[in-house]
Amino acid sequence: MRKSKKIAVIGAGLMGTGIAQVFANNGYPVALFDTQQNALAQSLVTIRSNLELMANNGIGDLNEIEVILARINPSLDFAQVVFDADFVIECVPENMKLKQDVFRQLDEACKREAILATNTSVMSITEIASKATYKERIIGTPFWTSGTRRF
Predict the structure, then answer these.
(1) Which residue, 84, 102, 106, 82, is CA-closest to 93?
(2) pTM for this one?
(3) Which of 16, 25, 62, 77 has its C-alpha lying 20 to 30 A from 102's C-alpha?
(4) How many CA atoms lie within 13 A of 106 on its CB side?
(5) How far apart are CA 113 and CA 126, in angstroms?
(6) Quick one: pLDDT band at residue 143, thresholds 50, 70, 90?
């Protein structure tokens, strides 16, 4: 994907925060959605802390932290986050009904050519996609994070 592509992350928990950080660190604009303002605020605090830790240990540059953080747009507005996204990754709790509801909403709200991904590694992608109209664009992309690693 070209760097001009917009990424949307649904869920600002541990996984969503880490995924937003990875994309932003690699030059992508990221819209980060959560239903809780405190989760969005904590996500940015965590990303800043992770980037500082990495830079202080020779991975990255302290001078780039503000640039990376500026690529992340946290929002409580689901429609605003996803309407123009090229790649959306869902990071909500491992609850089948919740994931199906999220993908039904994404299928309706996203542009037709957007790729919709779930972060699950244990649930059926076919079952998650079952409530969507355009199931063929829904993929599984499980990321792995062990949280902040201390050096």
Answers:
(1) 102
(2) 0.91
(3) 25
(4) 36
(5) 19
(6) confident
